[in-house]
Amino acid sequence: MADPRAKAARLAARLPASERPTALRDPRRLKFFTLYFRRYFVKHMNALRLAPWGAPRVPDGVPVVLYTNHPAWWDAATYMIAADKFFPQRQSYAPIDAEMLEAYGFMKRIGAYGIDLESPKGAAHFLAASADILSRDDAVIFLAAQGRFMDVRTRPVGLRAGVARLPEIAPHALFVPMAMEYQFWEQRGAEAFVAFGDGETGADLLALDREARRTHLEERLTGVLDRLSSDVMSRDPARFETVLSGEAGVGGIYGLWKRALAAMKGERYEAAHGRRPTIDAGDDRP
């Protein structure tokens, strides 16, 4: 039986070495930017929370495509933190707008590669670059499959055609839906929420034609999004595991008022407002 990775390798070979994401990625630079985004997240957000039922279940020895919704600017930071927390032994990559990548070329060194599905040349380059990545068994791609920012409540979620093409070049890869949502609860900073669904191999997805495949992936992601949103709407931190804690507190004039009131009563000032979410023993506060 032919090695399913051979097709990805042949397609990747069409790219010159200077354009292959696996050759351009620099682990040291990625580590620096991961630390930067982590600190930025901690400063501006209250927490990153994982729904326990949606913990990633990914076997070793196969490349992974995480196809996600695209609700906010924070997605890039969430990707980098998720890669570091959930997939530390894998090489992480993410396609971004090709024009943006040309403007910010340094991003090629941290796993970004260009995507332009509006032209045949751009689509071919995206597939070849993805094939280069998916020829590695330790790779994970974070793919914002909607292709643009969309509200988490929008239905249908509207996945672009590109995600349905990837099983054709990587039948050996595992395709896993990843849902993200951001909401304000009881702190000044917003809460970020993530959940992963069950994976399917590219070979299994090839049983469907391309449009049916896209619809199927869309339905899988929608199911994870709906379940995650139900937990988020409960506003119950007990439904989540805290992956990363931010700098809690309401701040501003209200924070000053609370500080003064605590001093007057001789009490300890507590920056958090409302119920203090339970912090898991495994919480990794910087």
Can you walk me through this structure?
- By secondary structure, this protein is of the alpha/beta class.
- It has a single domain (5-265), classed as Glycerol-3-phosphate (1)-acyltransferase (3-Layer(aba) Sandwich).
- The chain is 40% helix and 18% strand.
- The protein has ten helices and nine strands.
- It has helices at 5-12, 21-24, 27-44, 75-86, 98-103, 120-134, 162-169, 202-205, 210-234, 252-265, and strands at 45-50, 64-68, 91-97, 112-115, 139-144, 174-183, 190-196, 200-201, 241-245.
- Strands 1, 2, 3, 4, 5, 6, 7, 8 and 9 form a nine-stranded mixed beta sheet that branches.
- α5 (98-103) links the parallel β3 and β4.
- α1 (5-12) packs across α6 (120-134), α3 (27-44) crosses α4 (75-86) and α6 packs across α7 (162-169).
- The longest helix is centred in the last third of the chain and has 25 residues, at 210-234.
- Mean pLDDT is 90; it is low at 275-283.
Brief descriptors of the model:
286 residues; alpha/beta; Glycerol-3-phosphate (1)-acyltransferase; 10 helices; 9 strands; 18% strand; globular
Order of helices and strands: HHHEEHEHEHEHEEEHHEH
In angstroms, what is the radius of gyration? 20 Å
Number of domains: 1
Termini separation comes to: 49 Å
Helical run tally: 10
Q: Briefly note the CATH topology name.
A: Glycerol-3-phosphate (1)-acyltransferase
Structural class: alpha/beta
CATH architecture group name: 3-Layer(aba) Sandwich
